[in-house]
Amino acid sequence: MSGREDASFTAQLAFVAREVEAALAALLVRAAATEVPERLAAAMRHAVLGGGKRLRPFLLIETARLLGCSEKGPLTAGCAVELLHCYSLVHDDLPAMDDDDLRRGRPTVHKAFDEATAILTGDALLTLAFELMAAVEADAEIRIELVAFLGRAAGAAGMVGGQMLDLSAEGRFGTGESPLAEKDIRRLQAMKTGALLAFAVEAGAILGRARPRERSSLRQYGEALGAAFQIADDILDVEATSGTLGKATRKDAAKGKATLVAALGLERAKLERDALARRAIEALSGFDERAGLLRAAARFTIERQA
Amino acid sequence: MSGREDASFTAQLAFVAREVEAALAALLVRAAATEVPERLAAAMRHAVLGGGKRLRPFLLIETARLLGCSEKGPLTAGCAVELLHCYSLVHDDLPAMDDDDLRRGRPTVHKAFDEATAILTGDALLTLAFELMAAVEADAEIRIELVAFLGRAAGAAGMVGGQMLDLSAEGRFGTGESPLAEKDIRRLQAMKTGALLAFAVEAGAILGRARPRERSSLRQYGEALGAAFQIADDILDVEATSGTLGKATRKDAAKGKATLVAALGLERAKLERDALARRAIEALSGFDERAGLLRAAARFTIERQA
Questions:
Q1: A284: CB partners within 8 A, 6+ apart
Q2: Where in the sequence is the domain holding A237, given as residue range(s)?
Q3: Out of A28, A144, A259, B222, which residue is the most buried by the measure of CB atoms under 10 Å away?
Q4: CB-based contact, A36 to chain B, within 8 Å
Q5: In Å, how far from its chain's centre is CA A117?
Q6: How many cross-chain Cβ pairs, A to B, lie less than 8 Å apart?
Q7: Which CA distances in Å does B64 have to A1, B69, B157, B202, B204?
């Protein structure tokens, strides 16, 4: 049963990734036909197209589908979340931030273009994410709730704040001399990675007009999944090779990044990751077999190699 | 008459600036009480508080008031536009962009803090602008229209795109060897500065539920005002001193920036600025004396010294 679900998860993830890729490509082509300067349009395409698992749109679309909403809205909202995710990668890769040259097996935007273009590309993608979310095919009340939640998840108390804590933990502002305590690392990661993954699930719940109890279960699922995903990422940074991952590896330790792998050691970090994935699956106990793909997504966080 | 209007314009601009300052301060204090990391919250306050004419909120609030809407919505929407304006200043000042050390008489964010903090501060303010716009005290339909329009005005086909063209015109991407033609400079400036100023007016029209003809007049007013304002800025860069302006002057020429002052010469640029201000005032001919403050705002673009 679980094997079959996992096979269909892989197929469905790939299917959604193609749908999202096509929708984003069409969106960026439309944008380029307007007043958008050519170099900026090219850099936006470089940042967004040709790669990525599109896990956030998948979670959003599958959550909405679980609740009976399989219209166009979830795809559009999924694209908005993906644009926001892509902006965060472009800015995180900047020389003043994580200073990465490689992303999804290709040069990062500031390497393929230049630093100013990368800053503006991130700004443009962040702005486009909100513009697109405001245009989701749904009632105005639902759209405004999506925009408001996205702002909270992506902002200073969410993703951006998490990135700030991450840089602080490297000690670069002279305030992080002692390594972060476990609970601070958890807070950092819940903000940096967890908030947007959890938002993707919650946005699906909003579009699917989840009842309060369903929404609360789905929120627990999203939060546990987000935490499992970040630990899995940190484990991959230690264990995978740059070739399979498409970006530089073993950079966390070199930079003194605050990860649970560093705090707990590799084996305990794996146990924690697995426990979180189980907790995510348990949060779905109120749903029937139609939640199979979301359950498989939780297992995927444990098993993925890239 | 016009002298009285100008005096009351100055008083009202100062009054709105205090209201906006207080509202933004309260907002940023509330934000700091949440999960926002301390250093990020401090940098956000540095970027937003303690200065600025708050011209965009003024235009938004006065336009809404002209149409009979003097509730809380315009102040909130005005704060959202101002947050967006402040983010653009933080990113524009970055070393990879215009590389400015001084803003409103104080060190820029990357000077007072550091480059990574400045990038994240801009990202956080941009995100907060949308979150706040989604929370404006108005119907969901109106809020979603505001968010969508803000996205368009601020994005790749608006403000961010204009900044990209501005950098291209410096020749830094090897594509701007010949100086821009006048019409390209106008396009650049309409996007870089005009779009957000025009949005401020249009947002006031949306909140004031302007009828189509009123809205069209107000759009013309906003566009002419935005263009006049940018030329006035370029003239000030040549004529003012760093002390009165609170930022470095004569940087445009040194950098080979594409300005109408460079293209037309100082005297013709002043004539153009004045003609645009008159056009802005003419666009308001369908409104009675209640549009006096907006007319005075157009004259202010000509007369301001900072």
A1: A217, A218, A221, A291, A294, A295
A2: 2-303
A3: B222
A4: yes
A5: 23
A6: 175
A7: 60, 5, 26, 9, 4
CA-nearest of A77, A80, A79, A63 to A209 is: A63
Residues of A in contact with B140 (CB under 8 A): 139-141, 143-144
Q: How would you class B285 by CB atoms within 10 Å of its CB: exposed for 0-12, middle for 13-18, buried for 19 or more?
A: exposed
Query: Which residues of chain A lie closer than 8 angstroms to B130, CB-CB?
Result: 130, 147, 150-151
Mean pLDDT of B101-112: 93
Residue type, B288: D
Binning pLDDT at 50, 70 and 90, where does residue B241 land? Answer: low
Least confident of A2-11, A270-279, B137-146: A2-11
pLDDT at residue A304, rounded to an integer: 77
Give chain A's domain count: 1
Q: Pick from A284, A279, A277: which is nearest to A298 by CA?
A: A277
Out of B163-167, B168-172, B214-218, B297-301, pick the least confident.
B168-172
Q: State how far the Cα of B79 lies from the Cα of A7, in Å rounded to an integer.
A: 50
Query: Token pair for residue B193?
Result: 């500065």
pTM: 0.94
According to the model, what pLDDT value does residue A71 have?
87
Kindly state whether A97 is in contact with chain B, defined as any CB-CB distance less than 8 angstroms: yes
Decide: B199 and B261 in contact? Cβ < 8 Å: no
Per-residue pLDDT reduced to its tens digit, B25-76? 999 998 877 889 999 999 999 999 988 899 999 999 999 999 999 889 999 9
**Measured CA angle at A258 (ends A119, A181), to 5 deg:** 135
Chain B contact set for A167 (CB, 8 A): 116-117, 120
Helix A55-66 × helix A195-207 angle, to 10°: 30
Q: Which two tokens stand for residue B222?
A: 């906003």
**Cα–Cα distance for residue pair A139/A132, rounded to 1 Å:** 14
pLDDT at A36 over 70: yes
Average pLDDT, chain B: 91
DSSP-based helix, strand, coil % in chain B, nearest 5: 75, 0, 25
Q: Is there a contact between A126 and B128 if contact means CB atoms under 8 Å apart?
A: no
d(CA B241, CA B236): 8
* Dihedral sign for Cα atoms in the order A70, A72, A78, A82: positive
Q: Tell me the sheet residues that pair with A102.
A: A107
- Residues with Cβ within 8 Å of residue B215, at least 6 apart in sequence: B202, B205
- The answer to whether A40 contacts chain B (CB < 8 Å) is yes
Residue B94: DSSP 8-state: S
Q: Which two tokens stand for residue A292?
A: 């199979």
Angle at B250 between CA A113 and CA B252, to 5 degrees: 30
Chain A CB contacts of B165 below 8 Å: 37
Q: Tell me, what CATH number does A190's domain have?
A: 1.10.600.10
ipTM of the complex: 0.94
pLDDT at res. A70: 86
Percent of chain B with pLDDT over 90: 72
Q: Give B250 or B159, the one with higher predicted confidence.
A: B159
